DNA sequence: TATGAATGAGCCTTCATTCAT
DNA sequence: TATGAATGAAGGCTCATTCAT
């Protein structure tokens, strides 16, 4: 890899990190490109060589961070299975992943603020299906793998995922950040029950022999 | 009521109407106070005698419009019951109301854009519990009335309402506006099944005598 | 006149004067609104309360300065007639005015640069027919008056004026500023001969009795 | 000629063509060097190996295009003489050339806009006297040839040419592009009469034997 | 109460030019 | 010769808010 190539990668990383810090601490609206550039140690004009505008970098960050949440959750799940030498069924896996993500967001509320305030299903779907960074995972693949592994059939797997994601994400936002209408820990059981219900309704009766 | 008082009311109404039109047609961010004031026929400085800032007027509008959605749905429900001389159970009423609101939003997508893009549970809760205009209804009261009428007991009625509202509103947004992951009409049955499941899980076994 | 009104007028004048100085010394392109505002002692944003953009103020200045040139020339002509108690015919008046304007431009070459580099017939025509400042004259009226006074008839007075103005202005530019293809004083006799020829060709034979 | 030399020529041509297209379609000010380079298929830095800056390439283009106008007009004139086996006198030739140029500009108004908006006598004179491309003509030589051929003597041939060129070019601009003060076809007769008058005044009485 | 002129910080964006490769 | 990443000054413009009237 040439020196130049290397240098470019460094600048990109620097920009992404700086922007993420600023976005999470002061919000997207109150962060200017001038500030991002300056703190990243590059010229303002250089910013535009890497990103179209502020919303471009924001979207890429959301995709990347969302992807990380899923990646961590999936990794933790695999870990858990290995360690305990346990098999968990599909429903259990979904709940495990949701729980892991909720806990992570609960401990990193600035991240939650950033993601939620700027999320749309469009960006999110992109996060689920494309890799921004080289080590990102494609959760959709993981999701379908999970479905196949269990040998269950779902009526509309994508709609089901959509309902769950929307329910969980919008629920988390006010529950974690404002404890409204109650603390996330109080909400959790009801939330999980609902998720289980959603899964049940989408599950087709297994072909019996 | 003095002439003066009347004049004040007129200005307030003019401001609210103008702002609503501008917000829904061009978005909140691209609407300036100068534009609102000018089109409302008052001076820029006068705006500040009625509202703290742009977000103040925006929030009041969201509350008012949300309230209207519920009011219309409830009115339509009562109408339906009278006309058909039918009794509908609690679950049916909730579904009826949701359905009515979804249909209204589907036909008024600018309203949906405005409300969703600027919604937070905080504002929304306010909309449910307080009256902005004199003819607004307090949906929370209606909700508890509905519960009492049926003589059912719910474990955590507020959390239940919260889950339903969050699920429905975030689902509608991408489904109606972007048909993602599918058209609202395809989503509806799954959504209603989920709502029913949520209600079921919150319903406590009836005291039998 | 209120204090406010007075204040506004002062600011306008200050802006016009400052802009004119900057435009003539460093050119329009190299003059920024920031600089105009700052040197005029007002805030940058205030500039936009008085002018749409840089070209708006530039056009108004050109109109005003052009008007002044004509005004001075006409005044000088009247003066000359009075003093010498002489009658000058139409052709002589036109030549007098042109000569006066050329001399003024020759002595104020920065003005010539400014006007010529930014002139278009559109702006110029406006300068001839509308008053920017209260003391501006409307040269077109003066022109037609001159025609009537002499009792001569011209075939196409407007086209004639157009030809003369275009010829003189474009000729002056390189002749005065770059002495190309010769000094204005060497060009003058040829120029005047040409102007006379233009007038002659447009003059219709007088009705004889 | 080496391959390298050839390559250089190609790049130069590509740059000139691209710049001309961009200048005429969107104007000089709104065309950036980046855009020219990119569309010409070379790197931005390479531009500077061929031209000093944007105005350098612009001037060369104006010279070249002006030269082409004269070249075409002269060629057409010669053609006309041959075909009709006619002799045209000096005055007639000048009028023919002017007429031809006007018609060409009338049919190619983007070219007129480009040339006029960026013309100065300096650049123009260069166009008359120097060849930019190898097939350009030197109109000044042609002009003096025409004078000699006819055996007429002019008092100040250069000033005469200057007056004519300035008159025609500035007249065309607003007349063709804005039909101000009238359409070019209405202006033409007056313009030609004026040109004839200019020539007459510069013509010295022929030496009689 | 009502006005609207004035503010001036702040933002985004463009672009000619340089220079290490 | 050729590249194109980097620069950073510069510029135009918007807008919420204040305050004297």
Please describe what this structure looks like:
The structure is a homotetramer of 209-residue chains. Chain A has helices at 3-26, 33-40, 44-50, 54-84, 90-107, 109-117, 121-129, 139-150, 157-178, 184-202. With 209 residues, chain A is mostly helical. Chain A has two domains: 1-51, Homeodomain-like (Arc Repressor Mutant, subunit A), CATH 1.10.10.60; 56-208, Tetracycline Repressor, domain 2 (Orthogonal Bundle), CATH 1.10.357. In chain A, helix 2 (33-40) crosses helix 3, helix 5 (90-107) runs antiparallel to helix 10 and helix 6 (109-117) crosses helix 9. The model of chain A has no long low-confidence stretch (mean pLDDT 88). Chains in contact: A-B, C-D. Chains A and B meet through helix 7, helix 9 and helix 10 of A and helix 7, helix 9 and helix 10 of B. Chain A binds a DNA duplex (21 and 21 nucleotides) through residues 2-4, 7-8, 11, 32-34, 42-46, 48-49, 53-54.
